[in-house]
Amino acid sequence: MKRLGLIINPMAGVGGSVALKGSDGVYDEAQRRGAVPRAPERTLRALHALRSALSGVCVVTCTGRMGEAGALTAGLTIETLIPVAEPTTAADTRRAARAMAELGVDLLLFAGGDGTATDVHGAVDDRLPVVGVPAGVKMHSGVFAPTPEAAGALAAQYLGGQVSDTIRREVMDIDEALLRAGVLAPRLLGSLLVPQVKSLLQRPKTRGTTEDALRRALGRAVMDELAPDALVAVGPGTTAGAVMEIYGLPHTLLGFDLIRGGRLVAADVTANDLLDCADDLHVVLAPIGGQGFLLGRGNQQLTSAVLRRINPSRVLIVATTDRLAALQGQPLLIDVDDPEIAATLTGKRRIITGPGRVAMYPVLRP
Q1: 185 and 111 in one domain?
Q2: How many folded domains does the chain comprise?
Q3: 291-303 pLDDT, tens digit each
Q4: CB 158: neighbour CB atoms within 10 A?
Q5: What domain range is 337 assigned to?
Q6: Which of 17, 55, 69, 343 is most buried, most CB within 10 Å of its CB?
């Protein structure tokens, strides 16, 4: 019988919808703002996908919310429980991962974001293969599957013997304290072994090198698309942020800013802020370089409730032709929980690539 290690960071993703850029050290504040952790529900989706594809798996996990509750809900057999106390910490993740490596589990499935991947890396290095369930705010690391279902399928293929090869994928993180101060400082921390199924792993992120003049031209192209009094939510990243530069406004690098008529209405808004004005809202989004993710990575303020009320035609996608070409024909991706919402945003979508220039490009939910 194959043995699966399972670690859930129960606090992962809690800061995304409330504009806190992550969960490190801000759990109490996120709860005060009404945030709900994403990890338990997304892990359950991964475990259901695993169980539907493969039987005869036993689980080594942690007590309570760090794994036991999810494994039992998914109907999996638990072999060993590692005791942890609430509230759980990064030290618990590292201790559990080391214990699972020493117990000789066949694969470690963990749910969280880049911070959780960093903790796992520090504990196991290359002693066992891992699969990351994307459940955090930041997921620049290459050890994550594109969706929870893909994570479950990847784990099932490896444990079931359909896949035996592994590959090293990068572990990256961003200093969240600096990020909240407006400084983007990604760090390459090392690598972890993951099962080698390219279609079930998210593509690695690349750093943008778009020239300022090109970005400003893209910003002007977006302005030309909008009525002067349109209410606009400008999304994360320097490409989308070119709209703010045109107006001479400060931009929240990993967040959403609301503008109308060239004036800043509100900076670094939350999901609830967007929900309050969603019926009249236009949204400017740019895909992540290399990964191609349009939704579900770093922009969790666009919750299902918000997206349900935004007219899909008012979601303006911007990307340079170089960024699209770098994808080599692979589609842009959206990782959203509601399949009905996904259906309104997928298919061939209009991408603004410059003044008077658009491209029709495929968008899908992996």
Answers
A1: yes
A2: 2
A3: 899 998 888 889 9
A4: 26
A5: 212-364
A6: 17
